[in-house]
Amino acid sequence: MADEAPFQLLHSEVIQYIYKSAEGETESGRNVTKLENIGFRVGQGLIERLTKDTARFKDELDIMKFICKDFWTCVFKKQIDNLRTNHQGIYVLQDNKFGLLSHLSVGKQYMEHAPKYLAFTCGLVRGALSNLGVKSIVTSEVSVMPSCKFQVMIQKA
Amino acid sequence: MAVCIAVIAKENYPLYIRSVPTQNELKFHYTVHTSLDVVEEKISAVGKALGDQRELYLGLLYPTEDYKVYGYVTNSKVKFVIVVDSSNTSLRDNEIRSMFRKLHNSFTDVMCNPFHNPGDTIQSKAFDGIVSGMMVQTA
């Protein structure tokens, strides 16, 4: 999978760049927001391209399934391992071997750095959903290193 | 060939509208505006109707005396509307379909352009070119 490596490298480099250029600033939340916004724009464009030849979606769950299968495969070359929902607008997407974390060492050592490696993807999902007409809040959490969970909260209008 | 081509955003404001310059532009704006209701109706029928119509192409929206209006909705709820002259009977459904396809392809390229802000009006030359190719050539 030759196209995976450049994406990972670029992704790490973007994080590097954003954190370097904001050195000295006290607010660290701003960097994560920046990454999230980059992801948002990418997600918007990407979903436009991916859904070009698919049939119209029936409902929200249909959209989420598309994100878990086709969208995830396109970006990370694998599907989401587990999708859970409470059928009331909360979806939890679990990836047992998340590509953007796979090059960090397993264990607790780099746990504090995990959020910045997930921010872009959070934005990616949020952007994709927003372009499909679903407003959402996406958060992420890591418990054991290469696996992570994304929680998608749908905002009802 | 088309006499008017329009792209309408998710929130129902025009992203792009172009008609043949020889005729009353306002009339086309009106025609396209009117068609939005029909589009809405067709989308909301998805899932309820037996013949589950989940294709992006919506087909003929409605005919008026002089024109036929065709619609297409992307998954991101952006609408494309093509107005053709009724007198032009040679135009097949398939051709309309392929026109929409082309339009959608080009629109995707516009959306993926990092210099384009989603939600802004379309100012792409490439998109303009595609649309020009589909319009009636007025000598």
What structural class results from the helix and strand content of chain A?
A: alpha+beta
| Main β-sheet, spatial strand arrangement of chain A | 1-2-4-3
The residue ranges of chain B in which pLDDT falls below 50 over 5 or more consecutive positions are none
Q: Roughly how many Å apart are the termini of chain A?
A: 41 Å
Main beta sheet of chain B: strand number and arrangement? 5 strands, antiparallel
Strand content of chain A: 15-25%
Topology:
The complex is a heterodimer of chains A (157) and B (139).
Chain A: H1 4-21, H2 29-50, H3 60-76, E1 82-85, E2 90-95, H4 114-131, E3 136-142, E4 148-154
Antiparallel strand pairs in A: 1-2, 2-4, 3-4
Chain B: E1 2-8, E2 14-19, H1 25-44, E3 57-63, E4 67-73, E5 79-85, H2 93-112, H3 125-134
Antiparallel strand pairs in B: 1-2, 1-5, 3-4, 4-5
Give a structural overview:
The complex is a heterodimer of chains A (157) and B (139). Chain A is α+β, with helices and mostly antiparallel strands. Chain A has one domain (4-154): Muramoyl-pentapeptide Carboxypeptidase, domain 2. In chain A, 48% of the residues lie in helices and 15% in strands. Chain A has 4 helices and 4 strands, in the order αααββαββ. Chain B is an alpha+beta fold. Chain B has a single domain, classed as 2-Layer Sandwich (Beta-Lactamase). Chain B has 3 helices and 5 strands, in the order ββαβββαα. Chain B has a 5-stranded antiparallel β-sheet. In chain B, 30% of the residues are buried. The mean pLDDT of chain B is 86. Classes of the chains: A alpha+beta (157), B alpha+beta (139). The interface between A and B is medium-sized, with 18 and 20 residues. Chain B: Keywords: ER-Golgi transport, Transport. Chain B: This is Trafficking protein particle complex subunit 2-like protein. Chain B: Its main location: cytoplasm. Chain B: Belongs to the TRAPP small subunits family. Sedlin subfamily. Chain B: It comes from Oreochromis niloticus.
